[in-house]
Specification:
Blueprint lengths: L1 H27 L1 H17 L9 H56 L2 H12 L4 H8 L3 H21 L3 H6 L5 H6 L6
Length: 187
């Protein structure tokens, strides 16, 4: 029986390969056609018992489905690549400003007392709620909110004390306190 399957497949391949290739090439070009035809006949070999007589319409349906899946996959890859490029372009455009702001904020943070730094880091960088941060430092959530408010004010004052030259020329800036309040520096 295996010889019969091989003979039947060879006959199908020899009789239909050119027409399947021409169909795919007319829709997607020659380079894609070679690949799709190979996959089409791989499916035909695996499902040889399902291939009807005449085999050409069935083979064209298989080729069409493979081509459709290939086009969808390529569209997904292109969309993903475009999205990554937009992220990279945004990052490149903002990187100098971000580095300058981050540097100024880290310098200001370094000047704060340890308790203030800890509260700001727990809140902004670790993303803890006031109740969670209060549990870490061992105080009530209300006390933590007051201490965090004061720490943010001191951070804002420390960062405002010596703004970088680039920021002064650039115009208005977002206060570090506002950035910490929304957790923007949690990078």
């Amino acid at each position: 029986m295996p010889d019969d399957d091989a003979d039947r497949f060879t006959a199908i391949y020899d009789g239909c390969r050119q027409r399947v290739w021409a169909y795919v090439a007319s829709r997607a070009g020659g380079q894609v056609a070679d690949e799709v035809v190979n996959e089409t006949f791989t499916v035909a070999w695996r499902r040889l018992d399902d291939v009807p007589e005449p085999p050409l319409p069935w083979l064209l349906v298989v080729a069409r489905n493979i081509l459709r899946d290939s086009i969808r996959a390529e569209a997904r890859r292109a969309s993903f690549a475009a999205e990554l490029m937009s992220w990279a372009e945004t990052a490149e455009a903002d990187i100098a400003e971000d580095v300058s702001e981050r540097s100024a904020l880290l310098k200001a943070l370094a000047t704060l007392p340890d308790g203030d730094r800890e509260l700001l880091i727990l809140s902004a960088w670790q993303g803890l709620t006031p109740s969670q941060a209060a549990a870490v430092v061992g105080c009530s959530p209300i006390t933590l909110r007051v201490r965090l408010h004061r720490a943010r004010k001191r951070l804002d004052q420390a960062a405002s004390a010596s703004p970088p030259v680039e920021e002064a020329a650039a115009g208005p800036r977002v206060s570090p306190r506002a950035r910490i309040a929304v957790g923007e520096e949690a990078r």
